[in-house]
Amino acid sequence: MTVEIGVLERVLDWGPQWHVNDHCFIQHDGVWHVFGIVSPDPGTPTPADLGLGHATAPALAGPWHKAEYALHLAPELGETVLWAPQVVRTAAGFAMVYCSGGPDPTDWGISLAVSEDLQTWTRVATPLFRDGFQARDPFLWWDADGAQWVLYYTATEQPDHGRHVVALRTSPDLQAWSERRIAFRDEQEGDEYGPTESPVVVRRGERFYLFIGPRPYDRPSEQTPNWEHPGYDGTDVFCSTRWDSWDQDDLVAHLPVHAPEIVQDDDGRWFISSGGIKRGGLWLATLRWVD
Question: Which string of b and e fits 87-107 if b means at least 16 CB within 10 Å?
Fold first, then answer.
């Protein structure tokens, strides 16, 4: 049980000295959409108006065309960041979970917006819940067996300290959420950046694959920021028979990608994406499951 990827090719360039980081894909009415963090690279002047980037294309490989921001930062709602959107289809249209931050990094928010057409978004819960340290990078998955939504995100064991973890909460309706549980614990301790970011879960039959990174992890410093460490472009893949529990012994693959999304095209082919700070946009490669 492992996964292999092909050659990464750039499919979306947001512009000189801009990058695309945590993102997601979804298709509607024959059009592919990508939503994600789009920001200037460090050292580049930051515009006053930033938001969650949105682009559309007729195929995953493009050509991609930038659209209006999906959301703009709303400081009046307590938002300090707009990070890591995940968009899913619901009975009423589409739902987006995203990290909305907050002034206290031990009490960051995961928020919800909804749309009927993937163009106009309305905030409906700011936030759904709060957690730390800097709870972020939500990934939403529908558990048909349990008739519930499962939301994974990166956090620490305690809101203000401890080992880096992938936490999860469940909900029947995207509104009321359970208390947090821990799905994966890493040996690294700390706050802010960590090796359990950008969780993605894919079910294949009775197996559940968890993708997390950056790995192997080196703590950033003033001299060497995280995006200059070799492990920044590294994602580990873990395989379990449970959707709520993985450990270090479940490791099955290491992939040279950052903040990936896993997506299946119209013809059934699987793809994996990669982005990140100073990585020049969004990259895509084929993905093969070796069961």
Answer: bbeeeeebbbbbbbbbeebbb
